[in-house]
TrEMBL record:
One of its GO terms (cellular component) is GID complex. The keyword Iron does not apply. ARM repeats lie at residues 52-88. InterPro entries: ARM-like, ARM-type_fold, Armadillo, ARMC8/Vid28. Keywords: Cytoplasm, Nucleus, Repeat. This is Armadillo repeat-containing protein 8. The keyword Magnesium does not apply. Pfam families: Arm. Transmembrane segments: none annotated. GO terms for biological process: proteasome-mediated ubiquitin-dependent protein catabolic process. It is found in: Cytoplasm; Nucleus.
Amino acid sequence: ILEGGKEVTATSRHYVDRLFDPDPQKVLQGVIDMKNAVIGNNKQKANLIVLGAVPRLLYLLQQPTSSLELRTECAVVLGSLAMGTENNIKSLVDCHIIPALLQGLLCQDLKFIEACLRCLRTVFISPVTPVQLLFTDPTVIPHLMSLLSRSQRTQEYITQIFSHCCKTPEHQMILYNHGAIQNIAPLLMSPSYKVQMQALKCFSVLAYENTQVSMTLVNVLVDGELLTQVFVKMMQRDRPIEMQLTAAKCLTYMCRAGAIRTDDTCIIMKTLPCLVRMCSKERLLEERVEGAETLAYLMEPDVELQRIASITDHLVAMLADYFKYPSSVSAIADIKRLDHDLKHAHELRQAAFKLYASLGANDEDIRKKVRHRL
């Protein structure tokens, strides 16, 4: 290998040149070779983008004369290029990759649809992609709903796109009006954990501060069981933490939107204790931050919940630990973890302050207990 970046650019140029070969078989082989070259190689990805591979790949992807195999391989390569840096995603979005891939979803071939969806998912979950691009064409959401039944992969990618792109009350209503609840609820029973999790995340973003959605969710049955009971089961201690936390968020948001009473057993006996568990030392930092913030949000307007929380599992004492974080270096053997935790320590303190504020919002006795700890 030659020194410097010259040889990378030379090979990259060779890959791009092959995309213009008059022989379709050579073009296909060129795309397959490109796919193998870019896996895990961000330098190569950046070079190919700079050299103009993206417009050509998109052209081949949309060309009616291209074979299905070629179109699918193009979608796979584009998905791989999207896996690189935020700059890569910006370049792809600027080349109008989103409308091209959405158009591709009208094809009947499942493998091609899955490749397009996988790429769309990667592009949409990036913070640099404007989520509004999902809602520009009114035919897109109903079409995505219709693709949910095609395979576990389509279910995973589509629900992940929905949960990431649903950012405003208007987005919530578009999804709601196109049958998001009926279409996504059965996915909570999927044999695939990834599908279950993305479906659960969809419900948390749909219910957040939305009374209409939350009121509808309360009456939904999944396999003959009330949706709220499905969420309660997902908060059991033997479930993965991410699932417990997201299910607790769903019930919290439904409660705050007025669809579940604060004295309902699913809140007092299940959601509240689950969120308190998330604040304990055993949990990872991000989990503790999310647990504390969600708990603060749940209790904010309700004195009785604050009273119950203040005597649950030594919550007030646990929170005092948040301010001493990280406690001692010896307790954290792994330096990498320490480094990571130090970066998040301020988030943890903020979350604890929110929770303290919530706990003491309406009751002098609780405030005294909190002050005593500080």
